[in-house]
Amino acid sequence: MRRSAKAWSSLVFACAMAVGTLAANPAEASPYQHGPDPTESSIEATTGPYQVSRTTVSSLSVSGFGGGTIYYPTTTSEGTFAAVAIAPGYTADQSSISWIGPRLASQGFVVFTIDTLTRYDQPASRGDQLLAALDYLTGRSSVRTRIDASRLGVAGHSMGGGGTLEAAKDRPSLQAAVPLAPWDLNKDFSSVTVPTFIIGGQSDTVAPVSTHSERFYSSLPSTSDKAYMELRGASHFFPNTPNTTMAKYMISWFKRFLDDDTRYDQFLCPAPDDAAISQYLDTCPY
Q1: Which PANTHER family does the protein's record reference (predicted)?
Q2: 257-285 pLDDT, tens per residue?
């Protein structure tokens, strides 16, 4: 069949438009994607695009952990959100990590900073308590209808970071884990398949990275999604005060693996060259 010059021109234009559309949109957006397109400024900001409310959970009303504070986006127009439980370190309570709750929640997560049963609980116990907190969050809490129970993550500092690894080992259905300056006598997490992002401090003398964070990272399967970031000059206590570098990559990891939001790949893969990072290892691409 012969086509006129005008018909051929129209066909070529249509094909070019189709190719351009595919190039601009190589994959469909995740159905769990929340918020505007991210930028360096947006993930470094102390407050994200969502207004946040909080509710206190008394230790008397729960079992398996010591209560805590839930931070959550106030909007009800965007469906459900992924949820994260975060545990403090040895002898500490949730106040030591309280800044992380609203910062993460304002980026589109439900966040539960918890207290432990005692200040002296070891990592395995803290891992169990993180899982108990997630079960409460999705099953009994006042915000349970705001949460997608299939998209859950854990994080924690020091022994809470060790607990994060223990929780990831015990519950493979978790979607993401972020141990912060983790401490644990157990050094073998070769069975963990949960995407895990370990953040250590270069000058940590409590849980030196050479005997803790780096060994934990190395023990994780090479076939799994994992990353290790070391903060230049940081002590063991870097998670206890607002830390922009920690927050921006923590947000990116949770966005990527809890929300399946590939818009955040750009901050994780290839390895970032942030001046505050002394070492970065990963299994990119995801």
Answers
A1: DIENELACTONE HYDROLASE DOMAIN-CONTAINING PROTEIN-RELATED (PTHR22946), POLYKETIDE TRANSFERASE AF380 (PTHR22946:SF9)
A2: 999 999 999 999 999 989 999 999 999 98
| Alpha carbons 130 and 84: distance in angstroms, whole number | 9
Query: H-helix or E-strand containing 132?
Result: helix 123-139
CA atoms within 13 A on the CB side of 221: 11
Place of tokens 């299939």: 150
Instruction: Exactly one of 115, 204, 225, 259 is catalytic; name it.
Output: 204
pLDDT of residue 3: 40
Residues 272, 273, 279, 283, Cα dihedral to 10°: 30
Q: Is 159 helix (H, G, I), strand (E, B) or coil?
A: helix
pLDDT digits (tens, 9 = 90+) for 142-156: 999 999 999 999 999
Q: Indicate the length of the chain as a whole number.
A: 286
Active-site residue (options: 236, 259, 261, 282): 236
Is residue 212 flagged as an active site residue? no
In DSSP terms, 227 is beta-bridged to 197, 282
| Residue where the block lists tokens 């390895």 | 271
Q: Given the residues 96, 141, 158, 252, select the one marked as catalytic.
A: 158
Per the annotation, the verdict on 158 as an active-site residue is: yes
Token pair 């206890």 is found at 240
**Which positions of the chain have pLDDT values less than 70?**
1-27
